[in-house]
Amino acid sequence: MKVELHLPILIEQARKISKKAYAPYSNFRVGTAFLTTKEKIFTGCNVEFADYLALHAEVNAIGAAVNEG
């Protein structure tokens, strides 16, 4: 598996998911995408809360992968 071949797709997916981020306090939207060894792509975006804590995009992407099994 050559990750370089997937980079344009990963970048596109990260940009796309960043638009779904919930960042009303910082207004800093983050998206991430990662590729598994089975060539599956998982994405995630940041989510902010009123107490100024946040779920980072990377954590959400890993959560999506774990949920899918």
Automatic annotation (TrEMBL):
**For this UniProt entry, which segments traverse the membrane?**
none
Gene Ontology biological process? nucleobase-containing small molecule metabolic process; pyrimidine-containing compound metabolic process
Q: Which Pfam families match?
A: dCMP_cyt_deam_1
Q: Which Gene3D superfamilies match?
A: Cytidine Deaminase, domain 2
- GO cellular component terms, A-Z: cytosol
Q: Name one GO molecular function term.
A: cytidine deaminase activity
List, for all copies, the residue spans of the domain called CMP/dCMP-type deaminase.
5-69
Q: Which InterPro entries match?
A: CMP_dCMP_dom, Cyt/Deoxycyt_deaminase, Cytidine_deaminase-like
**Entry's SUPFAM superfamilies?**
Cytidine deaminase-like
Q: Which family does it belong to?
A: Belongs to the cytidine and deoxycytidylate deaminase family.
What's the protein called, per UniProt?
CMP/dCMP-type deaminase domain-containing protein
Q: What is the lineage of its organism?
A: unclassified sequences, metagenomes, ecological metagenomes
